[in-house]
Amino acid sequence: MMRENTGLGWDATKNTIIADDDWWEQKIKMDHRYRRIRNKNLSLICYRYDALFSDIIAMGERARAANQEQISKIEVDLNKE
């Protein structure tokens, strides 16, 4: 759910998804079951997913860590019309 969207966060203290009210309202309109997880502690789910996916990593020239600067190889000539 979170990986398909931007502008979301994770509250590591409460183990909840951080999103604005508009995002939640849109999701709940799509599927009423989202209401159940809006302020719910999701630590058990995260624990299970961590066990499943913790050994999966991105490799190669396009792999990036969250703390790395994004590098782009696209060059743009700003003087060109």
From TrEMBL:
It comes from the Eukaryota. This is Myb/SANT-like domain-containing protein.
